[in-house]
Amino acid sequence: MKSPNSAAPSTRPGRPEGMIRRRGFLHLGLSGLASLSLPALYQLRTAAASELTTSRKKPAEPTAVILVWLIGGMSHLESYDPKPLSGSEYCGPFQPIDTKTPGLQLSELLPRHSQISDRFTILRSLVHTGFCHQQGAQQLLTGHPVRELRNKPDDPDLFSITHLLRSNPKQALPNYVGVNPVPYVGSAYLGPAWEPFSISGNPDDPKFEVPNIGLADATQVGRLAERISLRKGFDRLERAVDRAGTMRALDQYESQAWNVLTSNAARKAFDLSQEEPRVRERYGRNAWGQQCLMARRLVESGVELVTTTLNGPLCGRVQNWDDHAVNHNVFEAMQRRAPLFDQAVSALVEDLHERGLDRRVMVIVTGEFGRTPKISYAASTGEGAASAPAGTVQPGRDHWPSATSLLFSGGGIAKGQIVGATDSRGEQVVERRVDVQDFLATVYRHLGVDAERISFQNFNGRPIPILSGGRPIPELCAGSA
């Protein structure tokens, strides 16, 4: 059900006929969004979405994105940007290995990645200024220069925005699913209706189940129908004064909730037991492998926006990739988690290509930043997986937004490439610097969102552009239609 306080999109010059112009919509916003009926808000959204699809060639089929999020920030030195000649103060114990891509070396911890490098591209030159986890995630996924430490952003992230613009109330599946959602981001002033359908827990657990999806019990379905009928009876009272038809607009989105709750297709999409055992083994019979497998099942079933965060006990003592020396021995932590990460991501990339989904579905693998090239040493604050007993001095790497490496696969991007470069220590970008606006412009382009022309009004009635700058990364888009 959509909140009547949700913000509505406006557009820059070149509006379709019938679109409310920014000045007129600003006037409405300044007098309070209550002056607009909910159907009018939906009409604006529909018009904005219509403009998006006509501003460039409409894709032959709906595009999708899977974001694999490494919360805490994966060390680029021990993964996608090894620096074997950086010296003892910088270099860890792992050696680089060659890949199928000429000139591309990865850490020896990622042998499966190396065998399929012709199916992805590595970007080594993303830079931003978010030195903490909240800032890093929010800068990268909203495009705004967040400096304050807030657990939720002032501006919506790209997934919430795209969810609003591409929402289809007739769809039996939620269009935005967080399989262990990305923390620190959200829908902000768009309203909670545009948050992801959230799934938590370990999909490899035999007792795992997704609540509120595809009720199979006829008794439960009947009770739900009775409750909805009862609510509709009360709604008739409101309709007597609801001349704008607000309740009819709400019913449109209530129908989607009904679809999700009762749909057999929804239940099947989330049911990993539908997969052959060999496929589940291919991804890895652990939480991360099965999260990535569920992401593939969802996009194959028509879900367009999927995020999945790889964290928890598989990461080590503090259950994330934040490998300060006080948390983990960074090298033990990477050695512990790398085989599971390597298998899950490689299986996802390969499976999408083998099923012919690679052009429609873009996979992005990243965390909020890289790690300091210079190794730090500090006393552990506690004994556990990948961490020595409390008080033991161990090596770590700290936050480093000056050089972040990302993996891109699918989405029609050019494959088998290296984009950008860092210096001999992996400290600073020396070639093809990319900022968060460029990153987001690239993803929005794949999703068919004209980020240069659409803006939303925040709580204060101020129009906020989706992006204030940035251009799609040409090296990635070279292979796109």
Describe the overall structure.
By secondary structure, the protein is an alpha/beta fold. The chain folds into three domains: 1-59, no CATH class; 64-210 and 271-447, Alkaline Phosphatase, subunit A (3-Layer(aba) Sandwich); 215-262, no CATH class. The protein has helices spanning 22-30, 38-54, 111-115, 133-142, 158-166, 218-239, 246-262, 264-270, 277-283, 287-300, 330-354, 436-447, 474-477, and strands at residues 9-11, 64-69, 96-98, 105-107, 121-126, 176-179, 197-199, 305-309, 361-366, 370-371, 376-379, 393-396, 399-400, 404-410, 417-419, 421-422, 429-431, 454-457, 463-465. The strands form six sheets. The protein has an eight-stranded mixed sheet, sandwiched between helices. Strands 1-18-19 form a three-stranded antiparallel sheet. Strand 16 and strand 17 (429-431) form a beta hairpin. Helix 4 (133-142) crosses helix 12, helix 9 crosses helix 10 (287-300) and helix 10 (287-300) packs parallel to helix 11 (330-354). The longest helix has 25 residues, at 330-354. It is globular.
Summarize the structure.
With 481 residues, the protein is an alpha/beta fold. 33% of the residues lie in helices and 15% in strands.
CATH topology of the largest domain: Alkaline Phosphatase, subunit A
Sheet with most strands: 8 strands, mixed
CATH class of the largest domain: Alpha Beta
Q: What is the percentage of strand-forming residues?
A: 15-25%
Span between N and C termini? 35 Å
* CATH-derived architecture of the largest domain: 3-Layer(aba) Sandwich
Low-confidence stretches: 1-6, 11-59, 224-228, 230-250
Structural class: alpha/beta
Number of helices: 13
The tally of structural domains comes to: 3
Q: Helical amount among residues, as a percent range? A: 25-40%
C-alpha Rg, in Å?
23 Å
Identify the overall geometry: globular
CATH superfamily of the largest domain: Alkaline Phosphatase, subunit A
Q: Strand order of the main beta sheet, please?
A: 7-6-8-2-9-14-5-15
The counted number of beta strands is 19
Mean pLDDT, to the nearest integer, reads 83
